[in-house]
Amino acid sequence: MTTQQLILSLVLATMVFSVALELKVDDFRRVAQQPRAVVAGLIPQFILLPVGTWAATLLLDLPPNVEAAMILVAACPGGSLSNVITHFGRGNTALSVSVSAVASVIALFATPFNFSWMVATNPATASWLRTLSIDASDIWISLLLLLAIPMALGLLVSHQLPRLTARIQKPLANFALFALLAFIVLGLIKERQMLTLGLLPMLLIVVLHNASGLFFGWITSVAMRVTERDRRAVMIEGGMQNSGLALGIIAVQFNSDLGMVTIASLWGIWHIVSGLSLAFMWRRKDARSAH
What we know:
mainly alpha, Na+/H+ antiporter like fold
């Protein structure tokens, strides 16, 4: 793990901890009593977005490496950032955390399966077919260190030290927002050599691809008639794929192919932009409703 990755991991863990300070065990108990919302959060990630992406790559005439990258990103589960975005957007954070945890386990099997059949049945990408070797330890460690431990610590502190929680809750929430904005800025700085007019077609692909994930989350939540707060969580889970996992796979198994890296990197930046934009929109909607 590089120094940059370590710092980002610590920031993410702190953000999840700050989210947990406002949660209660009862929030997760209510989610367990209504598994329909969890299923609604999993359908866009493992069925609708992958199949929709596969269909789009059959219809579009894109370079094979770009199509392979789109398929790979769509096959990846959501990341822990979705929990922070959902919380900031006043969605059901306990549901978001529950979906992330279940999705991480399912991804051990579903990500290689989805990628393999989608690439194999697409004439443009069939030559790119190779069996993905997902390192289960990477997902388990990420799930444990970036989600389970900070979430448990936050719940414990909130329950045992309510006065301390009241003092640190707002500063940590502000830090989480600052950190998200910093991710965008640092990501743009890191990829500044790629920020040319020639990148616009790639960016457009990522924007439309991400929008389709958000749309699939929305349509699933509407079809399954979940509440407004649950709908927000499902939309974010549907649109925020784990581009970090995708980049790791591309580096190890595709020799850091430039087209694939570009798609996954742009997704990693853009899904924060789109997620934060939705969260701000929802907060403004709530503010108007309160008046």
